[in-house]
Each structure stands twice: as C-alpha cells, then as structure tokens.
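Service request form, structural biology core

Requester: graduate student, group of Dr. S.
Request type: structure prediction, single chain
Budget code: on file
Notes: please return the result as structure tokens.

Sequence provided:
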Amino acid sequence: AGLPHMLMRFYTVPTAKAARKSVVWAISLIGVFYLFSLVLGFGAAALVGPEKILSAPGKENSAAPLLAYELGGTLLLGFISAVAFATILAVVAGLTITASASFAHDIYASVIKKGKVSADKEVRVARIAAVVIGLVAIIGGILAKNQNIAFLVALAFAVAASANLPTIIYSLFWKGFTTRGAVWSIYGGLISSVGLIIFSPVLSGKESSVIPDANFDWFPLANPGLVSIPLAFFLGWLGSVTSKKEVDPAKYAEMEVRSLSGAGAEKATVDH
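Core staff response, request fulfilled:
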C-alpha cells in the first residue's frame, strides 16, 4: 500500500472513485506478477539447474532469461529481454515522477514555502528533483550492480512498509491516532529501516556486500523489516497516546467513511 506504484495512482486520476479503482487494479496485477515470480524461480531451478544459473554472469538474476532460453530458444529470450527492459523503464519512470512530485509538492511547496509558491516554480523544482534523484539512483545502481535484484526489491518493500504502512493502518482503523503518532511512525520507520540496512551485511562484512572490504555490519539481518516495521507501529502508538490533543469523534467518523468508501471526497475537493 505504501509503494510508489500505488501512491502514483492518486496523481493520475480525476476523482476519488477512479483512484480507488486504479489502485485495486494495480494491486491485483502486481500481486499476480509476484506470484508468477515464484513459479519462474522454481521452474528455473528445475529445468535449468542451480549450477548453471550460479555460473552465469548475472548469477541469480539470470534465472528468468536462462529459463526463457531453455523453453523457447533465442526467440523467447529476446521477447523476455524486451519485456524486462520495458518494465525497468516503466518502474524507473514511475518512481522518478512520484519522488520528484512528492518533494516539489509536499516538501518544497507545503513545508518550505508554506503554500506560497506558484505552479510554475513547483514544476521547476520537480524537474530539478527528478535530475537529482536520477543521479543518486544511477550511483546507487552502480554500487549495487552485483546484488540479487529480488533481494533489493525486498529491501525497498521493507523501507516502504516501515515508513508508510503503520500510518495507513492506524489512520484507517484507530480513532485515537494523532498527528504526533503519524510523524513518529513515519520518521521512526524510515530512519530505522534505512539505518539498519546501512549497518547490515548488505553494505559490509561479506564478499557479496556493496563494500566487501569494510566491516561495520553490527546488525545481523540482511532485511530490516522484522525490526523496523514493528518499531514503526510502536512509535505510532506511543506518539498517539502521549499526545495531549484530543480526537474529535465526529471528524474521525467522517474521515473513516471517506477513507473506506470515498464518499464525499469529490465534494470536499470542489469546496476546497
């Protein structure tokens, strides 16, 4: 629910009802895709063989192309390669648009400029942010070029879940959730997940690490989700129960109806 693939749906639809429909379709398609990845992995292990996969230049990342070559020769391999290339472009484009638009609108326009900024200036900032994000992504991709792609995706999932999932769940289903709880949960989940990744075997301590010669991997797990996600839920609860601001039951009831059904969202947007 917190992945950019989902969040970007809210930027590309005209109404709340259309946004909900778009998100449902996206979640369904992505869910089916990841179920297929299990089938492809077991199929490659059975038909191609672990030894051949691990001896290939991309090692685990070569499992799907080798399976395609085993089943359909160069024709199917070419088709799969084209699909993979198009998918990479689509994902990178979606992530870049989401990240740059979020920075320009949520951080620059809303936080830094307090809403006092023109649309042209906001677009200009989004373009600059897209370039900076692209450069950072390129550098990160070069450093992590030998890592398992599926493992890197799991890290992205862990960060997204840590930073966003508790706030989404609490906002929908807990009337005692407050602004302080949301801030503590988002920042706590983001900082803890990224921090634990930095001090995990992903970056140092092993031959397969990004920096194999270094050794600052005091956190033993390669994926931080087991620690960072529960921590974010706890911080969201702690921030809410220690907040002095009382929750208005009427406002919570209205927000709950809108968030779960979309009712009244279009009218609220027009009135605003």
